[in-house]
Every structure is written in structure tokens, then in C-alpha cells.
Write a structure and sequence with these properties.
Length: 280
């Protein structure tokens, strides 16, 4: 049967005009079809190497951009806190006009919700940087007014402790193999405990002050936001289970800045000395 088909196919090729026994030509092989397109293809190894190099490069640019903006925020905050702490007339003015504190708190709250919830705004230049600047100035004023009620030596001490702790946590986040991004539930539970404890503390302290209760809450708050700082730093680095998109550089800066400022505020409650308690 096989031998009888071959002459028939050859006959069809030699006599294309005859309608009897015509068979279509066989399709080309894979090697013949791809012979002219070999120069346009890339091997899998080259594609993976190129893509992984681009990803590392983008991640480095993302980290540098976040820390550059963060350094500017911290310098602005340090200048405002120093101005409110060391300048006597400014200290007296902000303490005698608490309305500016509540106004800055309202601006801080609105800008924080805008940057946190509206991804279209925090990804659109220059509106994201404008909102971030307003947020930084308002939160810096709040921190400066809080620091004005403490002794200047206490403020300087807490600034140094905060800088040392944040530097240690950042270096640890870059070097450690422990993945804190996988423990989001634990951090959320800890945060809820602190939130409920803060409400109870606000109701209990005005009526029956317990000296160690405020300090205990501040210690737990400092521990919580130190863990949040490590969590946000590992999200920024991107070498753990969960990572942050390079487009969210404003959101990453916002989170790390908030962590550092809350750590400073809790350290101020732990180690700070009120001015009415200081020895002149």
C-alpha cells in the first residue's frame, strides 16, 4: 500500500493540471520554517538575565529615591523641632496658641488620608510631592509643639536614641534573613491592642493616674513602630516574600517617615522630662 502511493504523488507533482489523484504538498518541517527567523529570537537565559538586571536596577533607583526624599523630610522636621525647642519666643507663642496645633492636625489628617487612599494622586507628579510637603510641614509642627513642653536636653537625647535605633533597624533589615513581611497578622493584632489600650488609657489617666502606665504604653508603642519600621524597610528592599511596587515611592517614604516620627514621640514619653519637672 505504501509503495503504490508514492508513484501517485509523483504523478500529481509532474502533472499538476490533471484532476485525478492530486495530493497537496506536505507542510515544511520545523527546522525549515524557523530557518529564516533564528536571528530574531532570544534565548531564555538572555531574557531572564536582562529582565533580572533591569529589576535590580529599578529597585536600586527606587531605594535611592525613597531615602533621598526621606532625608529631606527628616531635615525639615529637625529644623522645625529645633526652632520650636531652642527659640524662646517661638516656644512661648506655640504654647499660648494651641489652635495652630489643631489646624496642623487637621491638615495632617487630610493629607495622610489623601496619600494613603488615593493612588492616582500619590502617583501623579507633582501633586504627590506637593501633598507630601504639606504633610511633612504639618506633622513637623505637631512634633515641634510636643517637643516644646520637654526639656531641651531630653529632646536632644531622644533625637540621638531615635537616630541610633532607626539606623540599627535599617541595617538589620538589609542584612537579616528573617522575613517580617510574612507576619502581617501579628503586627495587626499588636496594633489593635495598642489602639484599644490607648482609648482606655485616655479615659483612666485623668481620674486615677498610674505613674508606670503611661511609660508602659510608650515602651510598647516604641516596640510596635520599630517592628513597623523593619516591616516597611523590607517591603522597600524587595528581597522578601512581599514587596512594594517601585511606583509607590511616595507611599514608601510616607510609611517610613511616620514610623520614625512615632518612635521619636514614644521615646520622648519614656526618656523626656517635662519643663515643669526640670531643675533650672
Amino acid at each position: 500500500m505504501t509503495q503504490s502511493k508514492v508513484p501517485l504523488a509523483n504523478t500529481a507533482e509532474n502533472e499538476p493540471t490533471s484532476g485525478k489523484g492530486f495530493f497537496p504538498p506536505s507542510p515544511p518541517s520545523y527546522e525549515e520554517a524557523t530557518a529564516d527567523a533564528t536571528g530574531m529570537c532570544y534565548s531564555d537565559a538572555e531574557m531572564l538575565t536582562q529582565f533580572s538586571w533591569d529589576d535590580r536596577h529599578i529597585r536600586r533607583v527606587f531605594i535611592r529615591k525613597v531615602y533621598f526624599i526621606l532625608m529631606i523630610q527628616l531635615l525639615v522636621t529637625l529644623a522645625i523641632v529645633s526652632f520650636c525647642t531652642f527659640c524662646g519666643p517661638v516656644k512661648d507663642y506655640i504654647q499660648s496658641n494651641p489652635g495652630w496645633y489643631w489646624a496642623s492636625y487637621a491638615v495632617f489628617f487630610v493629607t495622610y488620608l489623601t496619600l494613603s487612599c488615593c493612588s492616582a494622586i500619590r502617583r501623579r507628579f507633582p501633586w504627590n510631592l506637593i501633598f507630601l510637603t504639606i504633610f511633612t510641614i504639618s506633622f513637623s509642627y505637631m512634633t515641634g509643639m510636643l517637643s516644646s513642653y520637654y526639656n531641651t536636653k531630653s529632646v536632644v537625647l531622644c533625637l540621638g536614641i531615635t537616630a541610633a535605633v532607626c539606623l540599627a533597624v535599617t541595617l538589620c533589615s538589609f542584612q537579616t534573613k528573617f522575613d517580617i513581611t510574612s507576619y502581617q497578622g501579628v503586627l495587626f493584632g499588636f496594633c489593635m491592642v495598642m489602639f484599644i489600650s490607648g482609648i482606655i488609657l485616655a479615659l483612666v489617666l485623668p481620674f486615677n493616674y498610674v505613674p508606670w502606665l503611661d511609660v508602659t504604653y510608650a515602651v510598647l508603642g516604641a516596640i510596635l513602630f520599630t517592628l513597623f519600621l523593619m516591616f516597611d524597610t523590607q517591603l522597600l528592599i524587595g528581597n522578601k516574600r512581599y514587596t512594594m511596587s517601585p511606583e509607590e515611592y511616595v507611599f514608601a517614604t510616607l510609611n517610613i517617615y511616620m514610623d520614625i516620627m512615632y518612635i521619636f514621640s514614644f521615646f520622648l514619653q519614656i526618656f523626656g522630662t517635662k519643663q515643669d519637672q526640670s531643675i533650672v
